[in-house]
């Protein structure tokens, strides 16, 4: 089980860092640029760019946007890998050997996804750094103004809120695709359909749960 968990951490968490860092950097940059371009009044301080970038990245873009991307990347992988085992009767073989197939296939994925907040923390840092790069090197804000905006009215609970969301999203990303893969019926064509269905349902549930958690934790 230890080897299975380490393998899943490598594939689900470590293997996703590249795309998460790439997307977070440019999302942070886009938020900073759009905020700067919408500040038309000279009375509005330039540190608002850093403030808006921090709030947008920490509260929404890092935990939620990243989770929907992970639902596509990780969720499709989980559904297709388990679904292929179902189609090729490998799961039936595990059952015959006396192995609890559900525990053997799904439990390591759930444990691996508990490291997901680590990915979200990196996404937050890289997103804010991307905003700083875009704001300062794009000529929209000075470095001092941007950093001042990052420190303005900071509420530590917002970080806790994001990590609570990311833990819940991690469990959704691990369980919903596993369900669609484990209980699918048919052949190779149905594996592709199950992957698509699992991505759609995971994204829908993430968005609904995001609304509920925001209402409960911040409302």
TrEMBL record:
Domain of life: Bacteria
Keywords assigned by UniProt, alphabetized: Membrane, Transmembrane, Transmembrane helix
A Pfam family this chain is assigned to: MlaE
Cellular component, GO, one term: ATP-binding cassette (ABC) transporter complex
Positions of transmembrane segments: 12-37, 110-138, 159-179, 199-218
Record-level Gene Ontology MF annotations: phospholipid transporter activity
Protein name, as recorded: ABC transporter permease
Organism: Arenibacter certesii
Phylogenetic placement of the source organism: Bacteria, Pseudomonadati, Bacteroidota, Flavobacteriia, Flavobacteriales
